[in-house]
Amino acid sequence: MKPFVRVMKALSDPSRVKIMKLLQRRQLCVCELTAGLGLAQPTVSKHLKILEEAGLVTSTKEGLWVNYRLADGESSPYAAALIGNLRHWLNDDPEIMRLYERLPHLNRETLCGK
């Protein structure tokens, strides 16, 4: 039951749901997520850690960047089910629609200055 509860708790926070919705569109680094959500970097990093521990998000290091993307769901059938269903949920939510509008302007080179 613990893996199920971990996934459900991870998605119980609106900011983490927004992160998941953004990552459905493309992989992002912390600075892009920070700018898109209007949250502090430590807050975004904490949310990403919770999502990663639940098997919902994975990260890879690429030079200076740590890229976050949706997990493939292999680590947990609960994560896989929710990742799949979340693709169809909340797409017409006004907050999510505003995030999607900001997404093309989230550029790590500009935001992070590297």
UniProtKB/TrEMBL annotation:
The HTH arsR-type domain, residue ranges: 1-90
PROSITE patterns: HTH_ARSR_2 (PS50987)
Alphabetical list of Gene3D superfamilies matching this protein: Winged helix-like DNA-binding domain superfamily/Winged helix DNA-binding domain
Record's keyword terms, sorted: DNA-binding, Transcription, Transcription regulation
Single GO MF annotation: DNA-binding transcription factor activity
Keyword set includes Lipid biosynthesis: no
InterPro entries reported in the protein's UniProt record: ArsR-like_HTH, HTH_ArsR_DNA-bd_dom, HTH_MetalResp_TranReg, WH-like_DNA-bd_sf, WH_DNA-bd_sf
Protein name, per record: Winged helix-turn-helix transcriptional regulator
